[in-house]
Design brief:
two-stranded antiparallel ribbon, 6 helices, mainly alpha, rod-shaped, about 45% helix, two-stranded antiparallel sheet
Length: about 230
Amino acid sequence: MAYEFLKKLFGTPKDGEEPKAMTYAELEAAIDADKKIQVVDVKAGGYVSKEKLDAKITELDGVKQQLSDANTTIQSYKDMDIDGIKQSAKDWETKYTQETQKLTAQLAAQERTHALDMFMGGYKFSSKPAENGVRAEFEKKNFTLEDGKFLGGDEFMKSLMENDDYKGAFVIEDDNNPEDDSHEDEEGKPFFARGVGGTGGAGGEGVKGKEAPFNPFGFNLIRQPDKN
């Protein structure tokens, strides 16, 4: 029935008791006391469906939660040290910039050192101290390194090699030395000796009673014995 929800207002009579009778004032007071009961005049347009009512209640609850969250956030901003946060962000930015510059400088220094090692490796020096001295003079010039090459580096090294104070630090190979005709170090290589025979040849007469093979050049090919 449509009025079943009103039964609880009258209570449940015990056995042998009459149902509770209520005046209008008592009924009105009982309805107002029960928060779950809402009585409206449908004809006056005061009725809404349960679905719409539930949706509106949910919406209001959501708005209340949003207001609560907003108030909490606003309070947290009030409690923040804004100037401290700004300074912290600035400090981190400065640190990042410095660390980046430091790393870039380290990489450039490593590249320059490697290039200088390769460059100095193209020269021969009379001693390690001599090489260190030339290297120190070279580094003082701070030549520009471009595509792995020191601009003006070759010309500077040439000037040092011609300078009386520095040329002694270099070992200069002389390609005009005469060749050594000695056979002492030519183990296993053949050499020529004067011939000892050859009929009618330049090598002289053959062994008596035997005819030597013809040798028009007067030399015999002899292989050196192996050295023990």
